Amino acid sequence: MDREDLSRNKETVLIDLTKDDEEDDEEEEEDDEEDDEEVEKEEDDEEEEEEEEEDSLEEMIRDMTCVICSKIYRNATGITVCQHKFCWDCIYGKIAEHDWTCCPVCYAKFGNSEPLRNLRFDPVYNSLARYVLFKVKENAEKEPKRAKTSQASSSSSSRRKM
Fold first, then answer.
1. Superfamily of domain 56-138 in the CATH hierarchy
2. CB-based burial of residue 81 (10 Å sphere; 0-12 exposed, 13-18 middle, 19+ buried)?
3. Which of 112, 70, 74, 65 shows the shortest CA–CA distance to 92?
4. Which residue intervals of the chain are DSSP H helices?
5. Domain boundaries, the chain
6. pTM score above 0.70
7. Which of 46, 52, 87, 160 has its CA 20 to 30 A from that of 67?
């Protein structure tokens, strides 16, 4: 186009430029919305992973809890007759001091005159119990940090809405 065409079409050109600006604004808004959606999706994914990890940890805690003291195993010990696990101090105390002759969970009889011979230290369960205890402590340390982070993010998101 030459100058005469431009001068005749000045209004059209301005309208076209305005349309381009509006389209750019719309594109920017769409990009911002997409970015916000991506951030929210990432946050949701992280929260889901944390929830799954917490569910898994809760399940492990249930599996690694002594039914006598209701704590995570310390020196995990199994009964050879039925394979139920307990803390060494808990099961030893019940058998030695209280003359128990059966498993406190399933009541399987020990079957011999020396019930303590039915106890076996379980290194695998002991390692798992130590791992669970470590994770519980780690989560307890993370919890105050998460609370501060969630408060900060909720206050910043409320500022954005205003």
1. Zinc/RING finger domain, C3HC4 (zinc finger) (3.30.40.10)
2. middle
3. 74
4. 3-8, 10-63, 88-98, 123-161
5. 56-138
6. no
7. 52
